[in-house]
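This protein record is not my work; I was only asked to verify it. The record follows directly below this note.
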Amino acid sequence: MAFNRRSKEQIYADVKGDIEAEVSGANPWLRRNLLNVLAKMIAGVAHGLYGALDQLAKNLLPTTRIESILTIWCAIFGVSRLQATAASGSISVAGNDAAVVPAGTVYLLGDVRYTVDADITISGAAGTGTVTAETPGADGNVDAGATLTLLAPIAGVSNVATVTVPGLAGGADQESTDSWRGRLLQRIQEPPQGGSLSDYYRWVRDAHPAVTDIWVKPHVAGIGTITIRFMTYGATADGIPDPQVLQAVFDYVDNVRPVKAKEMFVIAPEAYATDYEIAISPNTAAVRAAVTQQLEDLHRREAAPGVFPILSHIDEAISLADGEQDHALINPASAPVLTANQIPVLGTITWSDL
């Protein structure tokens, strides 16, 4: 039988009935009598206790979103929460020949501090080396071409350094509660099987907190080979994983997978920018923003390597945008032919009045 939480008024009525049954031969509800006050107090306390029981009943299972309970379930199944990771990458430093930027030197970009990993010796007029963000998190990711500033000047060395290709990357925030919960449910529903496809999906998710969508294909490069593609939506501008995350995933999965498995490939999908041409009514900034959001969500849900969203679903997504009254999807008029490694991402949208 389902548990039905009683209202405060129902509990109050029950308490009054109990009091009337116990106080025989007298009217317990005379003016200036404390019994009515006590009945209301008891009802309030009991109602709160019922609320606590109701909350626990809904959240004691692994489907919970309460972190304290989720922590217990994850400990039972050995699903640790993925912690934040620090961004890293290479920089170019100008200065006098043979000048040295010592390991541990701090560079700044805004509020983020970066530490030089090993001595950088300038040869000729420039030197290159690697730095790592002191504080883990996505805030440490920086595009190539950005400039970092020395915290303290060094003789013979320029006060600024330039971030080189592919940028400072690999930084990710602590895993969200929903992602952590999802990995727990996957562990329960798909127990380890010594190297099945579901194991590879789980290993990739366990490898790095930036990982979102995953595609694992066997035998693509030969019998027994494994090809892994994944995205990092929210951590990178277009969702394409950066080299640091690719390497982290490869290293982790290669360490936990069965030694008998053949060659494994971890590949970043190639972004296929899809340009749209839409005639819309009303053609306002608010409606355009709403349509853009719907199309971004659609690409996130349906786009996959070699797979383009269904055109009718594109029309539907535009129609679902707040404020949209009518539209005509001019381009794309048909789904483009993609290679096995191309994934559609939202490109430029050209708007016109309908």
